[in-house]
Design goal:
This protein is α+β, with helices and mostly antiparallel strands and 494 residues long. Helices cover 68% and strands 9% of the residues.
Length: 494
């Protein structure tokens, strides 16, 4: 069986080649214009762009995809932040304080000099030299302690290192928070993949829209050339007096309509060209030619529907994003609930100070000391707040679970529709091929009858319109086959 797109090419080329001079005794039809433009659109330009290349180029410059990447990076940074929060909190501080001058009080008032002299006289009367020496030494020590004052050190310097860690926070709050952050990062990466799929599919759809629009433009231009050829032939015959002038006027009307259709097709092709260039980031003067061969249609996908559904439900990036989002919401609920429990905090510190306040009396020198503490605290207000937050997070998780179930049903429905569209597109292409073959046969028969003068221009115009319509329908049907296959692949994922 002749391939439908090859059939279109052969029919167009045959019309161009077979419209030369007819046999003797027949009215001649002017040659139809070359169908090279139509053929090139169908088979592609070597080195031109295809749908996959268009999708790749769109992904490289799409602003929405760049935003999705940035969101994924933000989620990755949040996961790193949550990981750091699990580690003990280390603090290093250094401080300097200048104190105002104050008078330090005396702890032992100086004795009366007369009393000191009297005491020394009594000690001197002791006969035993050893005892007398002992008493004199004791008296000197006591006198030395009189008038003692703590030193006033005005410059205070402290360097402190401390480490604080809460095992309850790490277990009840920070651990679930880290799991939530990692799940959110995975969800952000999945959303990036979903955005990439959407951008790529949009580029593919724009590419095929341009292919359809250019085919419509080329076929409209061919139609204008054919009608003009018939009009010129009719005018020649009318001048010879063998054709009524009304037949020429009828073809003039048809030519005007064909030119109107060409103008509309050209405007549509220009709009489609602009849309694709914007998606791909192409300059207006950059060459944009299709390199895709529409004559090569792949065999239909015969994968069982159950396998397609399983692959889509597992691989679709949107579903992965929701599953990871559900994990994150549940972990956030667990972290919030952890705030209702008492908090145990352990702290270890070391001070290097000059003077060190723990050294009495104060000495103007660097001395090191350390300390360790454990604190258990609980607030009923915080517990009530944490419980309410946990309830809100659990409700959020239920919402995501419902959204996930809804999207899974939507994916199943979409797969069924796209699979049916792929089958229907191939059936439509085959029907359009058969329709074009029939319309071309009718046109050729009426063209021959018109040349022989047995039918009017109206009958020829009707056949020509039907053939032009079936040409366009076949071109659209064959592009629709490619587009339906691309949408089905995108629906399966990733």
């Amino acid at each position: 069986m002749v391939h439908p797109l090859r059939a279109l090419s052969v029919i167009v080329c045959a019309a161009a080649l077979g419209a030369a001079r007819p046999a003797a005794g027949q009215q001649a039809l002017p040659p139809e214009p070359p169908a090279a433009a139509v053929e090139r659109l169908l088979t592609g330009t070597p080195g031109g762009l295809d749908a996959d290349a268009a999708a790749l180029r769109a992904r490289r410059r799409a602003p929405a995809l760049a935003g999705a990447r940035a969101a994924a990076e933000r989620a990755r940074a949040a996961a790193e932040e949550a990981l750091v929060a699990l580690l003990p909190r280390l603090t290093l501080t250094a401080s300097y304080t200048r104190l105002s001058e104050v008078e330090s009080p005396s702890f032992i008032e100086p004795p009366d000099p007369a009393a000191v002299a009297e005491t020394r006289a009594l000690v001197a009367q002791v006969q035993d030299p050893a005892v007398r020496a002992l008493l004199e030494a004791q008296l000197d020590r006591e006198l030395a302690q009189t008038g003692f004052r703590f030193p006033v050190i005005l410059n205070q310097r402290v360097v402190r290192a401390a480490a604080r860690w809460s095992p309850t926070d790490a277990w009840l709050r920070l651990g679930p928070t880290l799991r939530a952050a990692r799940a959110e990062e995975a969800a952000a990466r999945a959303r990036e993949g979903a955005e990439s799929r959407e951008v790529g599919l949009a580029a593919v759809e724009a590419f095929y829209a341009l292919a359809t629009a250019r085919a419509a433009e080329a076929l409209a231009a061919l139609e204008v050339a054919e009608v003009r050829s018939h009009r010129d032939e009719a005018a020649r015959r009318a001048a010879e007096g063998v054709l009524a002038r009304v037949e020429v006027e009828l073809l003039e009307v048809q030519l005007a309509l064909a030119r109107l259709a060409l103008a509309r097709a050209t405007a549509g092709a220009d709009a489609a060209d602009t849309a694709l260039r914007v998606l791909l980031g192409m300059d207006p003067d950059e060459a944009l030619a299709s390199g895709e061969d529409f004559t090569a249609i792949a065999a239909p996908d015969v994968t069982p529907r159950a396998e397609l559904e399983a692959a889509a439900l597992q691989g679709r990036a949107e579903l992965r994003a929701l599953r990871e989002g559900l994990r994150a919401a549940r972990a956030r609920a667990e972290a919030a609930q952890g705030g209702a429990w008492p908090v145990l905090a352990l702290e270890l510190g070391a001070d290097l100070a000059n003077p060190n306040p723990r050294i009495i009396p104060a000495q103007e020198e660097w001395r090191a000391t350390w300390d360790a503490s454990a604190t258990l605290s609980w607030s009923p207000n915080d517990a009530a707040t944490a419980s309410a937050q946990a309830e809100a997070r659990r409700a959020e998780a239920e919402e995501i679970a419902a959204e996930l179930a809804t999207l899974q049903d939507a994916v199943r429905t979409e797969l069924g529709q796209l699979r049916a569209e792929a089958v229907g597109a191939r059936a439509a292409a085959e029907a359009a091929r058969e329709g074009l073959a029939a319309a071309d046969a009718v046109y050729r028969a009426r063209a021959a009858a018109f040349r022989q003068g047995t039918i009017s221009a109206r009958d020829l115009v009707q056949a020509q319109l039907e053939r032009a319509q079936t040409r366009l329908e076949l071109a659209r049907a064959l592009v629709d086959v490619r587009l339906a296959d691309a949408r089905l692949r995108a629906a399966v994922g990733p």
